[in-house]
Design a protein that fits this description.
Length: about 300
């Protein structure tokens, strides 16, 4: 009996020793592929509806399991932040880059590194999903930027009302505004962008949005903002846009002259109806069938 207990204790000591060696090796190795493999193993063995912790240098995240953006952040340590950095270079040195307006902030994968790396002095962010917003708030405090980021649990749209937000399981970053209540929907509050940009201008602000096809409605509620010609980065995802989307872009075409395709190396192009429609065929040929545009 005593010998059996000894063997059992010895067995777990050996397991503990092996785990320690693996962790020490993990913390000291510079093999990026191996580190990604370890993070991938941890992610995919984490149960559903659990919270993961990711520490990427000095940027930390609390992440939900079984979510596409969280997966990319945990395993690859990045999700589309490079798009913002490319836009920052293109707006030029004369832009003071004081305020980042982040619409569809998710858990903070864009706004938090932008502030931590001093790309912007402050940020105004919006995230409509209640559960995701709680993680966003937690990450803002976790990274010590709560004095620089003002977060709102809101959707930005064409009017102040209540909207139905369709929840996509396994990809909450793909949640979208639905025209009617469906099985997996959440009622969210909305407001217009003009109510938050009255003291901002084109020389100190950049707007970055990822709203799954709701961009035309946001533009309708941002007439004063658009007339200021504040640079805007938005996801261009043709298959998510409704039939009359192009008409809602009229005020944008009137105030912005050029655009850059941020997922391509193409040069500055004239921003008009003809060129935007022509871009659809090109976008539909690439993986993911979407791109990100900077309009100036």
């Amino acid at each position: 009996m005593l010998y059996s207990k000894y063997l059992k204790k010895r067995y777990y000591r050996i397991i503990e020793s092996l785990i320690k060696k693996i962790l020490i090796y993990k913390n000291n190795t510079k093999n990026i592929t191996l580190l990604k493999a370890i993070r991938s193993a941890i992610y995919y063995t984490t149960g559903k509806n659990e919270i993961l912790f990711s520490n990427n240098k000095d940027i930390k995240y609390l992440l939900g399991s079984r979510d596409w953006i969280s997966l990319k952040l945990f395993i690859d340590k990045n999700f589309d932040y490079s798009i913002l950095k490319k836009a920052i270079k293109l707006v030029g040195r004369n832009h003071s880059k004081s305020t980042l307006v982040n619409i569809g902030a998710h858990i903070g994968s864009t706004c938090i590194p932008a502030i931590k790396e001093n790309k912007f002095k402050n940020s105004i962010v919006f995230e409509p999903t209640k559960k995701t917003f709680k993680l966003l708030q937690s990450n803002i405090f976790l990274n010590g930027v709560d004095d620089k980021i003002k977060a709102y649990n809101l959707a930005i749209s064409n009017k102040k009302t209540n909207l139905h937000l369709a929840i996509k399981k396994g990809n909450i970053g793909g949640n979208y505004i639905s025209t009617n209540k469906k099985k997996n929907t959440e009622m969210v509050k909305s407001d217009i962008l003009d109510n938050y940009t009255y003291n901002l201008n084109k020389n100190n602000t950049l707007i970055f949005m990822d709203v799954e096809g709701h961009e035309p409605n946001i533009f309708l509620g941002a007439r004063k903002t658009i007339k200021k010609k504040i640079p805007i980065v938005f996801e261009f995802y043709p298959s998510l846009l409704n039939k009359n989307w192009i008409k809602k872009f009229d005020i944008v075409f009137k105030n912005y002259k050029f655009f850059y395709d941020l997922r391509d190396n193409s040069k500055k192009q004239k921003f008009n109806k003809k060129n935007l429609i022509a871009l659809i065929d090109k976008v539909n040929l690439i993986e993911g069938k979407h791109t990100d545009l900077l309009i100036v």
